[in-house]
Amino acid sequence: PYHGTTRIRGKITQGIVTSKKSKNTLIIRRDYVQFIKKYQRYERRNARLACHLPECLVHEIELGDLVKVGESRKTSKTKAFIVLGKMLRGSP
To answer: I want to staple 51 with a disulfide (CB 3.0 to 4.6 A). Which of 14, 31, 81, 91 is the partner?
Structure first.
């Protein structure tokens, strides 16, 4: 466990913080490309993920930050990811 007792298993991904209005919750935007077979081209898409924000990171993370999130068991109806930390822009 990174923060608290909830185990991280599954995907670890990153995204940009777009909303921090709810208590202990972040909304991040994850950009990706999807291949369209008919046109033999890629298109840009994005996904919004609701993530749990641990108490120890509440004051560290702001809107527009790049964050690393890990998949866990569902913590609410929409949240299945937990924020692991803030990433520096330009890092892999």
So the answer is: 81
